[in-house]
Structure formats: C-alpha cells, structure tokens
Amino acid sequence: xxxxxxxxxxxxxxxxxxxxxxxxxxxxxxxxxxxxxxxxxxxxxxxxxxxxxxxxxxxxxxxxxxxxxxxxxxxxxxxxxxxxxxxxxxxxxxxxxxxxxxxxxxxxxxxxxxxxxxxxxxxxxxxxxxxxxxxxxxxxxxxxxxxxxxxxxxxxxxxxxxxxxxxxxxxxxxxxxxxxxxxxxxxxxxxxxxxxxxxxxxxxxxxxxxxxxxxxxxxxxxxxxxxxxxxxxxxxxxxxxxxxxxxxxxxxxxxxxxxxxxxxxxxxxxxxxxxxxxxxxxxxxxxxxxxxxxxxxxxxxxxxxxxxxxxxxxxxxxxxxxxxxxxxxxxxxxxxxxxxxxxxxxxx
Length: 348
Known about the structure:
This protein is mostly beta strands. The chain has 4 helices and 19 strands. A hairpin with a 2-residue loop joins strand 14 (284-289) and strand 15. Helix 3 (199-209) packs across helix 4. The model is unreliable at 1-14 (pLDDT under 50).
C-alpha cells in the first residue's frame, strides 16, 4: 500500500499509517485537486515513533489527519464522525476560517460537540483562500493527534508563481498522558524546564552588574512569579517534535528539481511549542501569513507561534539536499526534514 511504502522509505521508525500527502515519495499538493466534500472519522489509533508505542486520537487513521483541499467560492460539506466511545464529545474547529456560528466547532460555545458514534455535518461557503489548519477543540484531543492541514485555492489564481507545493505541519507529540502534563505544569510551572539559573550565575552577574543590581533583578522576577529562562511550559523532556508526522530520525522528505520554485506551507499545529525555522543554505521569501498574501519578505529564519501559518518560497539551484530545520524556542529539541533532488539524501 502507499502507507506501507512510506513506512519503508522512512526506515520503519513509525507504525502509524501516515497520510498520503505526507509520505516522502508523495507528489506535491499542486497535483491534488480541491474537493467539495470530505468525510472524517475520529478514532483511537495505535502508533509507534522511534521504537516507543502510544495511542493517537487520529483523523481517518493518520497523524496528521487528511489534507483538506478546498476552493474559494465553493459550498462544502465536511462530515465528522466520533468513534471514541469513552469521551463526552469530540469536535473539529476550522482554524481561521470564516464560517456560520454553528459551524465553528467549539463545544459549549456554538454547538454541543460531536457525541460518541454521532456524525456532525459542517456546511458552509468558502469565503477566503490560503493556508490554514483544523483541529479538535475538545479537551486534549489536539495534543494526541487530532489536527491536519487545510488548503484553499483562490478563485482568481495565486499572486505568485511556483512549481511545487508542500504543507509542512509542525507539532509536538508526547507519550505521556496529556492530563498528567496538564497537572504537572499547574502544580509546578517549571516541571519540564531544567534550564534554571544557578548560584554560579548569580555570582557571575554580581561580578558584571554589582551586588545590589543583581539582587534587585532577582527580586523583580520573584515579584512577577516568573523566570527569565521560562521560554516553554513543556519541553523536549516529554515532547518529540514532528514534521508532517515524522520524527527527526524519520526524515520527512520533499523533492525538487534544481531551478524550481518551491512553496512550503508551514503550519504550527503544536499544542504549546513555538519554533524557529530555517533552511541552511537557502533564503526564504515569506509570501503569506495566516492565510493572507503579503508583500514578499526575504528572511533567513522566522519564528512561528502556535496556530500560525507561514507560506514561503524557496528557489534551490544546487543539485543537493537542504535541511528544513525547526527548533523549539527553548532549544530543548527540534524536528527536521529534507528538501532534496532525490530520495535517500540528507544534509547536515
């Protein structure tokens, strides 16, 4: 099967079926046409990443879920079925999408949630275009895998040209029960953060700034009940960072021919992690932010917050691989993939 082939390509690091759009040998989404109807099923699915086993809240059996590809101006139907019998409800929220009140998918706010063994029919007209994503809005289902990319083609054509088009979904996965993670950080905010200031650093600061200024600085942070090293609530101590469902060792791969223009749709579907993204050896032109086209901005690196999307264009001319590198803001870990002219290659 396609999933089996993808697992072979990634070295059997993962036994969870990956969606066709995220497999290393898959074609870019420019060759996948938009549809007006999607049927999505949410259910528990076993997975194994880098030899560790867990259970995902998967959409159509994969993490990330199905790529939803729509067209601006179309009336669409998205049927979501909840096959998890032990939860009060499930849901799908179409993040950033302009929808009627009852179609937004936030339980307790604009609908009752999708009850076990129930199907909820989302119907709305597409009034925008660009790169978005969708995810569960029920308890911790997003943390356990209920998310996926959502791409909307503009009715009047794109404002920029490109040859290939790849979603790059960044996320954070933990084999720890998210209820436990939530309890830990509520009891001790720095539970997962081991980058604490030391006595030695105190005396170093005294040497640089003086005793009184150093004490005043420590007292100010204490009054705020904050720490200057608190860059992330949850770190790589429990998280494995994923790119399109692949761990760093699985090496998600996108193909190009030298001289082509490649569109990369970065989507931060993480629960708590902000990433710094760069492609060593390649400049990026940011052409879209949160679904809105912008005047192209050349960058070497950008920071993407939780739930944000950034579309970039890259133009690799060298016939060699490049690393897509996304590092957690606190530097505790990273995920990565490869942009390459042929499968099986990696860059530093």
